[in-house]
Design brief:
Blueprint: H1 4-13, E1 20-24, H2 30-37, E2 41-45, E3 67-73, H3 82-92, E4 93-104, H4 111-121, H5 127-137, H6 141-148, E5 152-154, E6 158-160, H7 173-181, E7 189-196
Parallel strand pairs: 1-2, 1-3, 3-4
Antiparallel strand pairs: 4-7, 5-7, 6-7
Helix pairs in contact: 4-5
Length: about 200
């Protein structure tokens, strides 16, 4: 199940149920299931998902009626082809519709953050390798904002903890938040809400 703070953020940003919602990069479908339980009409997509409730289709290939909102939790940084996919997303969200984004700001991932994550994850790579590999394989938040900004009016990102959700044992959120507040770790998480321009 997605972290409670993720569900709370998404629910607070969405229009009231029974709005029609597209979830991009739905993974195992747990967030979509939580939204359906709250009364939303959800179409969940992910080309790599084995979950039967999630449609195995790429965003740029989706053929659907318009949505009142779209949600992308930790998925847009991997979407390919980015520009074509975001253009399709804009076509799928009605004017005035809401876009809810919870992302990983790979440009803020530094060696301090990599060391902290590696210490808790048990992965056997060097911090600089984690940083370089992540930046090589993920779209930056700046690129995502620039691309989305062509069709969506975006608010400023709300920065916060993210590493605790990245394949780590439960219970590390508070530790990460304390280190961010003390200036010892960067805030890598970024949450955005946007509105589809007319």
């Amino acid at each position: 199940m997605p972290a409670r703070d993720v569900i709370a953020f998404v629910r607070a940003a969405l229009p009231a149920a029974p709005a029609r919602v597209l979830e991009v990069g739905a993974g195992d479908g747990e967030l979509a299931a939580a939204l359906v339980a709250a009364g939303y009409d959800v179409v969940a997509i992910d080309p790599d998902s084995p979950a039967p409730e999630v449609r195995a289709v790429a965003l740029h290939e989706l053929d659907e009626l318009p949505f009142d909102a779209a949600v992308a939790v930790l998925s847009l940084h991997h979407v390919e082809p980015l520009h074509e996919s975001v253009r399709r997303l804009a076509d799928l969200v009605r004017p005035g519709g809401v876009l809810v984004v919870d992302e990983f700001d790979v440009d803020r991932l530094d060696e301090r953050a990599a060391r902290w994550w590696l210490r808790h994850s048990g992965e056997a790579i060097e911090p600089h390798e984690l940083v370089a590999g992540s930046r090589e394989h993920m779209h930056s938040l700046a690129l995502l904002r620039e691309t989305l900004g062509r069709w969506f009016e975006l608010g400023e990102p709300v920065r916060g903890a993210y590493l605790y959700r990245w394949k780590l044992p439960p219970g590390l959120r508070e530790s990460e938040e304390e280190l961010i507040a003390a200036g010892e770790l960067p805030a890598i998480g970024a949450r955005l809400v946007g509105v589809r321009r007319p």
